[in-house]
Specification:
By secondary structure, this protein is an alpha/beta fold. It contains five helices and seven strands; from the N terminus they run H-E-H-E-H-E-H-E-H-E-E-E. The radius of gyration is 15 Å and the shape is globular. The relative contact order is 0.17.
Length: 194
């Protein structure tokens, strides 16, 4: 696992000791950031179920203004902090040890341009997270919430303020892109390449 591009390109990242979590593959991560393109630059980025911090760190490396990492496992929190030190990106990061649903139940202190959701698989947590985000004001107008899931987990969700605008599959990883309703033209999708 490594940083693919930007300021910290090529830095190897640590994984969480004893974790059964399956981090995003380099291929899927590279495709994700190709799709997002310049949307990452100067963005406020929220990394939920952050794990090793790999996705948020990639965002920082590629020019995100700030990343908030939310993770409840102590060993994962330590790994994120270590990976931020390795990459020299600690100053632009906030690492919060909390349950994602407790974090989302609060009034948002700020709005995020990009929200990445990568919970443990097969538990329906990705859907629960999107339902918790729906209508809460965490996402900026024109922002994107991206869920990383196993393709068989996908289901249509009844959302009030969010809508699915794009879906991409990379082997056993599916990325689902949601935005606030009415903020993107039909067919505009995610605008990037990939």
């Amino acid at each position: 696992m490594r940083v693919i591009a930007g300021k910290a390109k090529g830095r190897k990242l640590r994984s969480v000791p004893g974790s059964v979590a399956r981090p995003i593959t380099d291929r899927a991560k590279e495709s994700l950031f190709n799709i997002l393109g310049d949307q990452v630059v100067d963005a406020l980025f929220l990394d939920l179920f952050a794990g090793t911090g790999s996705v948020g760190i990639e965002a920082l490396s590629r020019g995100a203004r700030r990343v908030v990492f939310v993770e409840r496992e102590r060993r994962a929190i330590e790994t994120i902090k270590e990976n931020l030190k390795i990459t020299g990106l600690t100053a632009q990061a906030e690492v919060i040890r909390d349950d994602v649903f407790r974090f989302l139940a609060r009034e948002p202190a700020e709005r995020f341009d990009l929200i990445y959701i990568a919970p443990p698989q097969y538990k329906g947590l990705w859907a629960e997270t999107l339902l918790a985000l729906d209508g809460k004001g965490f996402l900026t107008e024109g922002g994107l919430a991206i869920a990383q899931i196993f393709p068989k987990e996908y289901q249509d969700l009844e959302l009030k303020s969010l809508e699915l605008v794009d879906q991409r599959r990379y082997g056993s990883t599916m990325l689902c892109f949601y935005c606030r309703k009415g903020t993107r033209d039909k067919g505009q999708g995610t605008r990037g390449k990939g």
